[in-house]
Amino acid sequence: MTRPPSALRGPLIALAALLLALIPAPATATPTAPGRAAPEPAAPTDFVRLSSVDPTILEEIRYFTRHNFVGARIDGYRQPVCLLTRPAAEALHRAQLRLRPQGYTLKVYDCYRPQRAVDHFVRWAEDLDDQTMKGEFYPDVDKTRLFADGYIAEKSGHSRGSTVDVTLVRLPAEPARPYRPGQPLVPCHAPYDQRFPDNSVDMGTGFDCFDTLSHTLDPRVRGEQRANRLLLKTTLEDTGFVNLAEEWWHYTYKPEPYPDTYFDFPVSTRSVSARSAATAR
């Protein structure tokens, strides 16, 4: 390489230094304080705890427990609480006011469900070797069919905040027997006095039973079982809910405040209290 004459080297060096000074420094990420996790998303302002609208409705949030088709607590369930949009919670309250004089109370199994929980279901469904809870929840369904038959999907209406899984309990409500992991499993469509007792009335199958007998109007479900399903259905429909025909327990309030939004804040009182604190500031 030929070097420039000594008389030019000084000005060239100065020019090079000036050009380097004009080049912006690369951006650097702001370090997270040691031991501090990124904040969780909070619920929108119109999400509430169901118990703040109607404390008489029973809550048995199954995905906080191991008594579900996965056999483990589901991602995103930090506390066994029911969170819903306010319109859905108030509609449940109106249904409860109709049912209590008839000797019944509502009981919810699931309400708002974060997207991370749905993702957990998908991972479980893809693991064909994990069939821990098959004996109770999908005794007659091959696990390879869960997506094709519609039992598992990558999105859930629950994540929009206005869908609830619900049943009826006769008053006065007897305490539900706690589930003991490892206990013998009984098919969810077994006779009422044989399957897991959860203090609800006889709906023909247990909650989350992957079987066509769970279809709300399945013609094989008759007598008291059908009457119980119809009482739940007509009461909730009169207060604004729409039933999913394949699941007697699944109802969505219409019109939904968030028909196209799938939230991912965790199920906990903090999700709504943190939002309230932020609003107050």
Automatic annotation (TrEMBL):
Its cofactor is Zn(2+). InterPro entries: A_A_dipeptidase, Zn_M74/Hedgehog-like. Binds 1 zinc ion per subunit. GO terms for molecular function: D-Ala-D-Ala dipeptidase activity; metallopeptidase activity; zinc ion binding. Gene3D superfamilies: 3.30.1380.10. Keywords: Cell wall biogenesis/degradation, Dipeptidase, Hydrolase, Metal-binding, Metalloprotease, Protease, Signal, Zinc. The active site is at E247. Catalyzes hydrolysis of the D-alanyl-D-alanine dipeptide. This is D-alanyl-D-alanine dipeptidase. It comes from Streptomyces leeuwenhoekii.
